[in-house]
Amino acid sequence: MAGMVVETLALAEEKALITHSPKASALLQSWCQKGEDYYDGQGVPQNYVEAAKWFRMAAEKGHARAQSWLGSLFEGGNGVAQNFDEAIAWYRKSAEQGDIYGQYCLGECYLNGIGVTEHYTESAKWFRKAAEQGDAWSQYHLGSFYEGGDGVPQDYVEAVRWYQMAAKNNFENAMFRLSSLFLNGDGVEQDLVEAYKWLKLATEENAFWEKKLNSLRSSLTKEQIAEAEKRYREFQSSKK
User: Fold this and answer.
1) Domain ranges of the chain
2) In the chain, what percentage of residues exceed pLDDT 70?
Protein backbone atom coordinates (compact mmCIF):
# COMPACT_ATOMS: atom_id res chain seq x y z
CA MET A 1 0.00 0.00 0.00
CA ALA A 2 2.80 2.39 0.94
CA GLY A 3 4.53 1.61 -2.35
CA MET A 4 1.38 2.47 -4.29
CA VAL A 5 1.10 5.79 -2.46
CA VAL A 6 4.73 6.67 -3.25
CA GLU A 7 4.23 5.74 -6.90
CA THR A 8 1.04 7.78 -7.12
CA LEU A 9 2.74 10.80 -5.56
CA ALA A 10 5.67 10.44 -7.94
CA LEU A 11 3.34 10.39 -10.94
CA ALA A 12 1.45 13.41 -9.60
CA GLU A 13 4.72 15.25 -9.07
CA GLU A 14 5.85 14.47 -12.62
CA LYS A 15 2.50 15.66 -14.00
CA ALA A 16 2.75 18.91 -12.04
CA LEU A 17 6.31 19.37 -13.18
CA ILE A 18 5.43 18.89 -16.84
CA THR A 19 2.31 21.02 -16.90
CA HIS A 20 2.90 23.79 -14.40
CA SER A 21 6.38 24.07 -12.90
CA PRO A 22 9.01 26.48 -14.27
CA LYS A 23 11.29 23.43 -14.27
CA ALA A 24 9.16 21.88 -17.00
CA SER A 25 11.02 23.39 -19.93
CA ALA A 26 14.38 22.33 -18.48
CA LEU A 27 13.17 18.76 -17.98
CA LEU A 28 11.71 18.51 -21.46
CA GLN A 29 14.83 20.08 -22.94
CA SER A 30 16.96 17.49 -21.16
CA TRP A 31 14.86 14.71 -22.73
CA CYS A 32 15.19 16.32 -26.14
CA GLN A 33 18.95 16.67 -25.64
CA LYS A 34 19.21 12.99 -24.80
CA GLY A 35 17.42 12.26 -28.05
CA GLU A 36 19.90 14.45 -29.94
CA ASP A 37 22.83 12.75 -28.22
CA TYR A 38 21.60 9.33 -29.31
CA TYR A 39 20.83 10.63 -32.78
CA ASP A 40 24.33 12.08 -33.24
CA GLY A 41 26.22 9.51 -31.15
CA GLN A 42 27.52 12.22 -28.81
CA GLY A 43 28.77 10.60 -25.59
CA VAL A 44 26.66 7.51 -26.28
CA PRO A 45 26.53 4.95 -29.09
CA GLN A 46 24.41 6.23 -31.97
CA ASN A 47 20.98 4.68 -31.60
CA TYR A 48 17.96 5.99 -33.52
CA VAL A 49 15.54 3.84 -31.52
CA GLU A 50 16.75 5.41 -28.26
CA ALA A 51 16.68 8.83 -29.90
CA ALA A 52 13.06 8.29 -30.93
CA LYS A 53 12.16 7.21 -27.39
CA TRP A 54 13.49 10.41 -25.81
CA PHE A 55 12.15 12.67 -28.55
CA ARG A 56 8.71 11.11 -28.15
CA MET A 57 8.73 11.58 -24.38
CA ALA A 58 9.38 15.31 -24.82
CA ALA A 59 7.22 15.70 -27.92
CA GLU A 60 4.14 14.19 -26.28
CA LYS A 61 4.49 16.77 -23.50
CA GLY A 62 4.55 19.59 -26.07
CA HIS A 63 8.28 20.27 -26.62
CA ALA A 64 8.40 21.88 -30.07
CA ARG A 65 11.97 20.99 -30.99
CA ALA A 66 11.47 17.35 -29.99
CA GLN A 67 8.32 17.29 -32.12
CA SER A 68 10.24 18.41 -35.18
CA TRP A 69 12.96 15.84 -34.48
CA LEU A 70 10.37 13.10 -34.12
CA GLY A 71 8.81 14.21 -37.40
CA SER A 72 12.16 13.89 -39.14
CA LEU A 73 12.61 10.35 -37.77
CA PHE A 74 9.20 9.34 -39.13
CA GLU A 75 9.99 10.97 -42.48
CA GLY A 76 13.28 9.12 -42.83
CA GLY A 77 12.25 5.88 -41.14
CA ASN A 78 15.06 6.17 -38.57
CA GLY A 79 14.36 4.45 -35.26
CA VAL A 80 10.68 4.18 -36.18
CA ALA A 81 8.76 2.77 -39.11
CA GLN A 82 8.63 5.32 -41.93
CA ASN A 83 5.29 7.09 -41.77
CA PHE A 84 4.73 10.34 -43.67
CA ASP A 85 1.38 11.01 -41.98
CA GLU A 86 3.09 10.88 -38.58
CA ALA A 87 5.92 13.06 -39.87
CA ILE A 88 3.48 15.73 -41.05
CA ALA A 89 1.51 15.58 -37.81
CA TRP A 90 4.61 16.16 -35.68
CA TYR A 91 6.05 18.80 -38.00
CA ARG A 92 2.76 20.67 -37.84
CA LYS A 93 2.62 20.57 -34.03
CA SER A 94 6.16 21.90 -33.92
CA ALA A 95 5.64 24.52 -36.63
CA GLU A 96 2.49 25.87 -35.03
CA GLN A 97 4.51 26.47 -31.85
CA GLY A 98 7.00 28.53 -33.84
CA ASP A 99 9.87 26.05 -34.12
CA ILE A 100 12.04 27.07 -37.09
CA TYR A 101 13.01 23.53 -38.03
CA GLY A 102 9.40 22.33 -37.91
CA GLN A 103 8.32 25.24 -40.10
CA TYR A 104 11.12 24.61 -42.59
CA CYS A 105 10.39 20.87 -42.76
CA LEU A 106 6.68 21.49 -43.28
CA GLY A 107 7.55 23.92 -46.08
CA GLU A 108 9.75 21.25 -47.69
CA CYS A 109 6.98 18.66 -47.43
CA TYR A 110 4.49 20.94 -49.19
CA LEU A 111 7.14 21.85 -51.77
CA ASN A 112 7.92 18.22 -52.63
CA GLY A 113 4.56 16.57 -51.89
CA ILE A 114 5.85 14.46 -48.99
CA GLY A 115 2.91 13.22 -46.92
CA VAL A 116 0.74 16.02 -48.31
CA THR A 117 -0.39 17.22 -51.71
CA GLU A 118 2.21 19.47 -53.33
CA HIS A 119 1.10 23.03 -52.62
CA TYR A 120 3.40 25.98 -53.30
CA THR A 121 1.24 28.54 -51.50
CA GLU A 122 1.22 26.47 -48.32
CA SER A 123 4.93 25.80 -48.74
CA ALA A 124 5.64 29.53 -49.08
CA LYS A 125 3.60 30.22 -45.94
CA TRP A 126 5.74 27.95 -43.78
CA PHE A 127 9.02 28.96 -45.42
CA ARG A 128 8.14 32.58 -44.71
CA LYS A 129 7.59 31.86 -41.01
CA ALA A 130 11.00 30.18 -40.75
CA ALA A 131 12.66 32.76 -43.00
CA GLU A 132 11.46 35.60 -40.79
CA GLN A 133 13.21 33.86 -37.89
CA GLY A 134 16.47 33.76 -39.84
CA ASP A 135 16.55 30.30 -41.42
CA ALA A 136 18.80 30.57 -44.49
CA TRP A 137 17.31 27.63 -46.40
CA SER A 138 13.82 29.06 -45.99
CA GLN A 139 15.02 32.51 -47.05
CA TYR A 140 16.54 30.99 -50.16
CA HIS A 141 13.38 29.02 -50.98
CA LEU A 142 11.23 32.11 -50.51
CA GLY A 143 13.54 34.04 -52.82
CA SER A 144 13.19 31.35 -55.48
CA PHE A 145 9.40 31.38 -55.08
CA TYR A 146 9.31 35.13 -55.71
CA GLU A 147 11.71 34.76 -58.63
CA GLY A 148 9.56 32.11 -60.29
CA GLY A 149 6.14 33.25 -59.09
CA ASP A 150 5.52 29.94 -57.33
CA GLY A 151 3.00 30.18 -54.49
CA VAL A 152 3.44 33.98 -54.42
CA PRO A 153 3.14 36.71 -57.07
CA GLN A 154 6.33 37.00 -59.10
CA ASP A 155 8.35 39.84 -57.61
CA TYR A 156 12.05 40.22 -58.37
CA VAL A 157 12.52 42.91 -55.74
CA GLU A 158 11.29 40.48 -53.09
CA ALA A 159 13.38 37.69 -54.63
CA VAL A 160 16.52 39.80 -54.35
CA ARG A 161 15.63 40.83 -50.79
CA TRP A 162 15.23 37.25 -49.58
CA TYR A 163 18.29 36.04 -51.47
CA GLN A 164 20.29 38.82 -49.83
CA MET A 165 19.07 37.77 -46.40
CA ALA A 166 20.12 34.18 -47.11
CA ALA A 167 23.45 35.46 -48.42
CA LYS A 168 24.05 37.27 -45.13
CA ASN A 169 23.69 33.84 -43.55
CA ASN A 170 26.52 32.64 -45.84
CA PHE A 171 24.17 30.66 -48.09
CA GLU A 172 26.17 30.17 -51.28
CA ASN A 173 23.24 29.18 -53.54
CA ALA A 174 21.57 32.51 -52.77
CA MET A 175 24.79 34.32 -53.66
CA PHE A 176 24.97 32.47 -56.95
CA ARG A 177 21.32 33.23 -57.79
CA LEU A 178 21.95 36.92 -57.11
CA SER A 179 24.98 36.79 -59.37
CA SER A 180 22.92 35.18 -62.14
CA LEU A 181 20.11 37.71 -61.84
CA PHE A 182 22.45 40.69 -62.16
CA LEU A 183 24.61 39.02 -64.81
CA ASN A 184 21.68 38.30 -67.12
CA GLY A 185 19.41 41.18 -66.15
CA ASP A 186 16.61 38.81 -65.16
CA GLY A 187 13.97 41.00 -63.56
CA VAL A 188 16.62 43.47 -62.42
CA GLU A 189 18.85 45.95 -64.20
CA GLN A 190 21.91 44.19 -65.55
CA ASP A 191 24.92 45.02 -63.38
CA LEU A 192 28.11 43.07 -64.07
CA VAL A 193 29.87 44.67 -61.09
CA GLU A 194 27.12 43.49 -58.75
CA ALA A 195 27.19 40.06 -60.40
CA TYR A 196 30.94 39.85 -59.78
CA LYS A 197 30.48 40.78 -56.11
CA TRP A 198 27.96 38.01 -55.49
CA LEU A 199 29.92 35.46 -57.48
CA LYS A 200 33.08 36.21 -55.50
CA LEU A 201 31.15 35.73 -52.27
CA ALA A 202 29.75 32.42 -53.54
CA THR A 203 33.25 31.27 -54.56
CA GLU A 204 34.54 31.96 -51.07
CA GLU A 205 31.91 29.58 -49.73
CA ASN A 206 32.53 26.98 -52.43
CA ALA A 207 35.42 26.91 -54.92
CA PHE A 208 33.07 25.26 -57.45
CA TRP A 209 32.19 28.74 -58.76
CA GLU A 210 35.80 29.80 -59.33
CA LYS A 211 35.81 29.16 -63.10
CA LYS A 212 32.73 31.32 -63.53
CA LEU A 213 34.31 34.05 -61.41
CA ASN A 214 37.50 34.03 -63.48
CA SER A 215 35.48 34.16 -66.69
CA LEU A 216 33.48 37.16 -65.48
CA ARG A 217 36.62 38.89 -64.19
CA SER A 218 38.19 38.69 -67.65
CA SER A 219 35.27 40.66 -69.12
CA LEU A 220 35.48 43.54 -66.63
CA THR A 221 37.69 46.62 -66.65
CA LYS A 222 40.08 47.37 -63.80
CA GLU A 223 37.74 50.11 -62.64
CA GLN A 224 34.78 47.72 -62.55
CA ILE A 225 36.75 45.13 -60.61
CA ALA A 226 37.82 47.80 -58.12
CA GLU A 227 34.19 48.84 -57.64
CA ALA A 228 33.14 45.20 -57.25
CA GLU A 229 35.81 44.64 -54.63
CA LYS A 230 34.60 47.73 -52.78
CA ARG A 231 31.00 46.44 -52.78
CA TYR A 232 32.28 43.05 -51.65
CA ARG A 233 34.05 44.58 -48.64
CA GLU A 234 30.99 46.65 -47.76
CA PHE A 235 28.81 43.55 -47.79
CA GLN A 236 31.24 41.64 -45.61
CA SER A 237 31.27 44.52 -43.14
CA SER A 238 27.47 44.62 -43.07
CA LYS A 239 27.38 41.05 -41.73
CA LYS A 240 29.41 41.92 -38.63
Assistant:
1) 170-240
2) 90
Cut 0.70: pTM above it: yes
DSSP label at residue 128? H
- Whats the size of the chain, residue-wise? 240
Q: How many CB atoms are located within 10 Å of the residue 162 CB?
A: 26
pLDDT in tens, 98-139: 999 999 999 999 999 999 999 999 999 999 999 999 999 999
Per-residue pLDDT, averaged over 62-76, amounts to 97
